[in-house]
Amino acid sequence: MQHFRVWLAGLAVVAFTACNSGTGKKNNGADTAAALVPATPAGAVEVAITGRDKDTQQITIKFQIKDLKKEKSFEQTVLKDAPDAELFKVLWDEPNSAYIGVLKANHAVRYYHASQDDKGDLKILWATAPPKRIWEYMENTMGLGKVSASAELTKKYSKNMQSGMIIADFVAEIRPDNSPDSVELYVEFGGVRKSMYIGIPTGYQPTIQQTSDADHVYFSLVKDGKAEPFIDLKVENGRLQVKTLKEIKKD
What we know:
elongated; mainly beta; 251 residues; disordered N terminus; single chain; five-stranded antiparallel beta sheet
């Protein structure tokens, strides 16, 4: 069995198969100096998500400023089973500029930007690197990426399943650690076992968050009825995958 001591500053990726969950780096530049105050919209933004029963969904954004209208569609795989109120958020940073954040299937956020340029033309673009003040406000203040903690919180998940040529129990379990403010996260599949020791911030409750797929769960932290995933636990083609989604920070 492999054991890892994971501390809060820089939660490491521990996996047999790991990849970057984002499609582009977020902008962490000097634009963070001024605190963001949402603007009064000079127009309207409408977001529609269709094809929920398909592998890939269609995101349609309608943007209007006075008599000008713009509509554009994008393909994106979105988080399953999440209501629209938690699946996407809209933030107006200027009267003629709005960012739309939509949750991807792995709980990361894809951003789109609706804006009016100096010539008065309307544009809707995929924002691969949104300013830090934008994504911090949407994810921290507006709660984008945190979904309602439905059903009973689970400390242990166990499912006998076949993946590739292997039939075995997929297990994800939260166990007590010697320290009162940390836990052991134990996962196994097909004879592969891993233990990680994770510090838990004050006021948060660790949980195993199930998805609609038997081979996929999250290690999440719950506070005020909202669950936020931090570690992705998955079995794919007979291989156990453990991937860090975001750093856990202690107060």
